[in-house]
Amino acid sequence: MSSDKIEILYRNFGILADAKDKISEHVAEYADIIGAVKGSVNDKKLASQFITRFFKHFPSLMDQAIEALFDLCEDEDVSVRKQAIKDLPSLCKENNEYTPKVTDILGQLLQTNDTTELSVVQSSIMTLCKNDIKGALKGMFNLIEISNGPVREKCLRFLVPKIKMLGRDIMTKEIEEYTIDQCKKILRNVTGDEFMQIMDLLAWSRLSQSLAGQKELMEIIKHHAELSKSFDPSNPEDVDRSIYCSLHCVPYLCSAIPSTPFVSYLCEQVLPKLDQIPETKDEAGGLDNQLEALKLLAELSPFYVVHEDTPQHITSIVDCLFVRKQAIKDLPSLCKENNEYTPKVTDILGQLLQTNDTTELSVVQSSIMTLCKNDIKGSMNYKPHSDFSLRKV
After folding, report:
1. Per-residue DSSP letters for 40-97?
2. What's the predicted TM-score (pTM) here?
3. Potential cystine with 273: which of 14, 30, 233, 377 (Cβ 3.0-4.6 Å)?
4. Could you tell me how far CA 316 lies from the centroid of its own chain?
């Protein structure tokens, strides 16, 4: 039975291929090809190829043909799914109006756990991007906006690096402006990870290359940071947000874009509660959040603009100095059984040598000497940071 169906498929294919200018008269044959998606595995794979081959010639059956291919993308046989996924972009080659819809379906398929299938999905999306970038982005951004959970996460993780790979010949000024507008819409409701991915894309865009654009990025970061909100050191979201928002604003700081809102927040909200922040380490085995907050304050401070309530901020910093000095004393202990941390910790202490506080300087020097005694090779192998004041303008 299956061989008969395949024979019929090839016969219909031959009729359509030979019809040339009269191909549109053979609606019945094309409809039979679409119907073959209900057949065997081989029937389905052939039908997928033939549907896309003659798609543009039968406007009245286009919606039905697309739905048939979408069904194949959900088939239980992975070889059928891969064939349909590979063929989908061909539908849009001369019919760009379908690009957003097709990209939407492919975006949902990024959830697959089959690595070979995932590769085909990604390749098909990239083909759509190269053929019709505006339509492809529209489909992806619409899917991201209305989705949550794994679909949204997979789409963002795929889209952000791929957009940067496309190059400026495809990502024209018009397309970049569209992308920036869509990113702003998504930023209205994002998780911390999503925020960092979107900001990474915006930092790559033309928006980061002008002072006006950098100011706009700073406003976006300030809005997400919720600087008017009270800081809860026991809430991981509050801790993470205060750190990654402060971190993202650093590249844009200059005389025209001061760090005042973030320094004020750190001094008024975070530093007084610094010792209440759990001393958890990040996945990469880096330093804890207490030290990260202090490092960020050091980076932000050169761009702080003094205003009338400066004394209050200074008081907050002074109140925190004991905690800071204790943290500096504790730094070498991180390296006692983990020598790989030594260069990084030495780097941090090297930065702290710039302090004007003589008692703190003594503590820093003592900690550096402890590191040298414990691991002289590691302590001499660090790479000093460049001057904090060298920022993008």
Report:
1. -HHHHHHHHHHHHHHGGG-GGGHHHHHHHHHHHTT-SSHHHHHHHHHHHHHHTSS-GG
2. 0.75
3. 233
4. 35
